[in-house]
Amino acid sequence: MNDVTEKTMNGAESLVRTLVASGVEVCFTNPGTSEMHFVAALDKIEGMHCVLCLHETVTTGAADGYYRMMGKPASTLLHLGPGLANAMANLHNLKRARSGVVNIVGEHATYHLQHDALLTSDIPAIAKTMSHWVKTSTLQTNVAMDCVEAISAASQPPGQVATLILPADVAWSEAAGPAAAKPAAAFAQVPEASIEAAAKAFKAESRVLIMLGTRALREEPLLQAGKIAAKTGAILSAEVANGRLQRGAGRVAIERMPYPISGALETTRGVTHVILVGAKAPVAVFAYPGKPSLLYPPEAEIITLAAPGDDAQDALERLAERIGASKSTPLLNSRQRPDMPTGALTPAKIGAILCNLLPDQAIVADESITTGRGFFKDTHGAAPHDWLSLTGGSIGEGLPLAVGAAIACPDRKVVSLQADGAGMFSLQAIWTIAREQLDVTICIWANRAYAILKGELVGVGVENAGKRAQSMLSLDDPPLDWVKLAAGMGVDGVRVTSAEAFAEVFGDAVRRKGPFLIELDLSS
Amino acid sequence: MNDVTEKTMNGAESLVRTLVASGVEVCFTNPGTSEMHFVAALDKIEGMHCVLCLHETVTTGAADGYYRMMGKPASTLLHLGPGLANAMANLHNLKRARSGVVNIVGEHATYHLQHDALLTSDIPAIAKTMSHWVKTSTLQTNVAMDCVEAISAASQPPGQVATLILPADVAWSEAAGPAAAKPAAAFAQVPEASIEAAAKAFKAESRVLIMLGTRALREEPLLQAGKIAAKTGAILSAEVANGRLQRGAGRVAIERMPYPISGALETTRGVTHVILVGAKAPVAVFAYPGKPSLLYPPEAEIITLAAPGDDAQDALERLAERIGASKSTPLLNSRQRPDMPTGALTPAKIGAILCNLLPDQAIVADESITTGRGFFKDTHGAAPHDWLSLTGGSIGEGLPLAVGAAIACPDRKVVSLQADGAGMFSLQAIWTIAREQLDVTICIWANRAYAILKGELVGVGVENAGKRAQSMLSLDDPPLDWVKLAAGMGVDGVRVTSAEAFAEVFGDAVRRKGPFLIELDLSS
Questions:
Q1: pTM listed for this prediction
Q2: N or C: which end of chain A has fewer CB within 10 A?
Q3: B36/A457 touch (CB, cutoff 8 Å), yes or no
Q4: What is the ipTM of this complex?
Q5: A464 vs B contacts (CB less than 8 Å)
Q6: Per-residue pLDDT tens over the stretch A216-265
Q7: What Å distances lie between residue B170 and B136, B139, B479, CA to CA?
Q8: Crossing angle for the helix pair A143-155 and A11-21, nearest 10 degrees?
């Protein structure tokens, strides 16, 4: 069949060829009937790595992980409205990570929609709630151009959700050839006025907080931020959740804005100026009775040095130069090798083990939730690594993020740090990890509870929660057995109950290539 | 605490008390921080059975199963926009089943929304895409009345999706007491003109198709339809997918409209009149190149005897009387006891075993997809049972349906007939089945493929699919091990590879109470 496709090409082939021509080389998919022509096109076209996922929440979480590491969009391929609906929780996280994706949703044939067949829903309306750009490609002659527009929208710095809806008849009808790639827009240079405004914040009586997010958390811009902090005494803070933080030994020391309100308010006490670099001014993740929403003094002046789509590195470099900090010595993390702990597992001991054993250039996909708050601070001195966190608070992104990061960077070890409750929202990702033989070490923190909610219950003012309320936060009846769950999807694993066992098994796993799961029993 | 709640009551308690007062006694939930006051209210209030689900797709699928069996709505409790998004695929199925649900979605505190905290999304816009009724309860003094309105909307025959959005501060602020229940609206009696119009269809030269859906598929209205068919020679057909069909020995023999277009067109060949009773005129689930969307002769007259919200039994009874069919003898299924098969498992052998062994009054939650097409016809002669099917085509409803049906009818055996590919979309339901110790026997058809798509690929015109396309439809690398997956969530199971082994294990499982899983290896 390959020989006769050049002259006659259907809409699906035109679309796939256009994606490949623009450098969109990965498609995370769970296709159905309306997407069969797209699937068939894969046989004729080289250059598209199609990754099958057993639930759509894996597709968009993986696309997010891919974008965070590659800085260019993957595509998804979703089955009608329900497929899109299943993908939305992680589209939310992807959006909040300021990542980009070309989200392709199959649709009924244009002439079939009027009949309200059982899978019909209002796909454009659903898509609009989580997309920056939505278009239904209603003409096979335009599908290639629509695709170029979608890629362009997805690549708009810092990244956007572009949803292209593809009716089945457009996919199967004869179409024009593929369209050529458009050059991607660059991160914008900020005007001199922004540098000036930020520079003015540094007065003798000021207390300046520099909030960093998006690309400002990469090694180079962080180095500039570190110089500014060294010169001025400004506080550096990463957003509470951010897409990708380059950290570890030799990199600028930075903490995340604490999740608990009390911790955040302590960090920002007395702050007079907040300089935003690819970040928002800090607000509470949730409201609590009698507590503020804003996590900084309301009278503080907010100065945007660089929006998320701006060139943060250039802006910070110019600011450093403007205030004479270019030669200052930033505070860098030194390599720490804490004593290897023994005995019962605690967050601090996990931190010590990770600090020792995280491989150089590891990619950490972190959805540790409660357990992770305890060990982030203990891993600043690990070997240099990238830390990807849950950006939108929609749990169930950790394992899919690991999939996407591992597809993006096959030569780097991916370490998935995964809370058990959150992990159950997208455990299907484990099958894709096995299927693609991705180099992922999965650590499950098995506290057998929605542990975060036990704190939140008190936080929102509920004292003395009774048995029925508590039971809604407990996952111990029956306990989940992650070693069996992983085995059911083709990944080997082991359960550990002590720090020394974790250290041994984790050390082995990160030295080997390929998938492995470790369940850490934290329930005792 | 219980003693002091009568006079001071927050919005969440007012809401829960109102639900219970109106007979909404079950809540399928996966709560988060913004829903903690609702959870806390459960401790103070008797009468609400709160069922924890580890992914929101389980909550709405279970609510659907519950409504199908109880005819009254359950509630859900979902965490913000992402929780709602995760619930939507099964809300789609629930809508298409014409079921009702009081879908409660937590929201940020009203004053917190403006800050665009990381979990913020446009919940009303998301909700509107899958709901008949949406309201944000912005005042704690009105929350009880808003809840009554939601229950009323959910109960509107035949059933609706009512989404009530509950801001956290409304939940935690002092509220008025609960509101009293409103009587639920009844299924409407159809006007005499509808009976007349339908009666006129039966002429010597007509060929009449009676399409039955919603409540028309219960035993009593089916009996009336059977009399009409016996008298007139009309063809009876259930919709291709329907919420609840009462079938088995002693009940009217009825087939579903075939899923393949060719089979459907054969059923409707020469039809001059289509009488709709709680059903739509049949249309293809998908469009295929060169094939029609309508599954009946376009010149046929369509007559609505009863809409889904009308009283189908009354309408059919009056029609039978009007045409003199009240004393006709309908064709009833006789009890069949086919020989018990042996050897390799096939759909026909599975059908024979189910026909013999399905317990009297079993509830079948059917998401068999490809495998099931082969054995439906073989089970007409089983003991009387209820058959719940996948109504919206959004796969991943079978196991959640089983949860809801088992909660609704604790004294009846629930049999989940589950395709493996579809099952992976909501396998988390197995944990809830274990947690609640529901009386569910789960049969997994492990063909290790999206087998339906292999046919669809050909159906949409793709011949000679290559390796890459085929690999998108295969689940055999690695194979899923459902016995391990179930064990990981606390349900025992066994794998069988022969008809005699299935018969033995299934027979044992349905005789015992409680959860059990059987994986049928159909891959060879």
A1: 0.97
A2: C
A3: yes
A4: 0.97
A5: 1
A6: 999 999 999 999 999 999 999 999 999 999 999 999 999 999 999 999 99
A7: 10, 6, 48
A8: 30
